[in-house]
Amino acid sequence: MAIVGNEPEKQDATRLTLEIQHPNCWTLKATEQTDCGLIAHTVYNSPGDAVKGHFTAYADETDDIEELIEVARGLDLTESVVAMNKRHDFSERDSRLGNTSLELFVEYDPRNSMSDALLSKGFIHDAPVRVHDGYEYWPVFVSADREAISRRLDFLREEKDAEIAVTRIVSDPEFGMADSAASEGLSKRQREAFLLACDMGYYSWPRETTTREMAEELDITKTTFLEHLRKAEAELLSPERVQ
């Protein structure tokens, strides 16, 4: 950080969406081989070297989700794939989340994820990761100028043998305008749920709150809160927004 007189020079923050493809990732292989997409929500520690990730699988047909589960279970990159019993079927034919979705818990080796590598270079995971057609879309922010960002991305490309493209970039002081624009298209309840999740650290690492606590904050049931939040995430992380 440069010093001007006795005061440090202000380092602007930058928000990016990174399109990433890298080896040995179960989400990329599963979405590349099926007509499903995934939304990665959070990761929990598991016994041993593996971690357990919480995902939403979405598709136009339930058979597509069954196929993704079968493919994921057959990969040597996953330790276990557990599907929640409850399915969510959406009546809106143009739903960005697809017509059906299913919550999954998948155990895998974190060394095959980009999460720790991105964090080591100052890229802070900012929101759920969307995965479709063999690519991951990571919303992140970083305190660095664009030259430094470029150097860090080059290092990650070499270190992880990854293809990384920047599909969206917004620098301070544009954040306020970007956040306002991002909320367009959401219902009042969806906007409330998403902004509350951001404020209470739901997307932090590690997670700082639970869906039950957030539902109580809005005085609604956990199931209703999750419905608002998942639809907000699907809208905000749709391909039209992140690319």
TrEMBL record:
What highest taxon heads this organism's lineage? Archaea
Which protein are we looking at? Bacterio-opsin activator-like protein
Which Pfam families does the UniProt record give? HTH_10 (PF04967)
Ranges for domain HTH bat-type come to 186-237
UniProt entry keywords in alphabetical sequence: Transcription, Transcription regulation
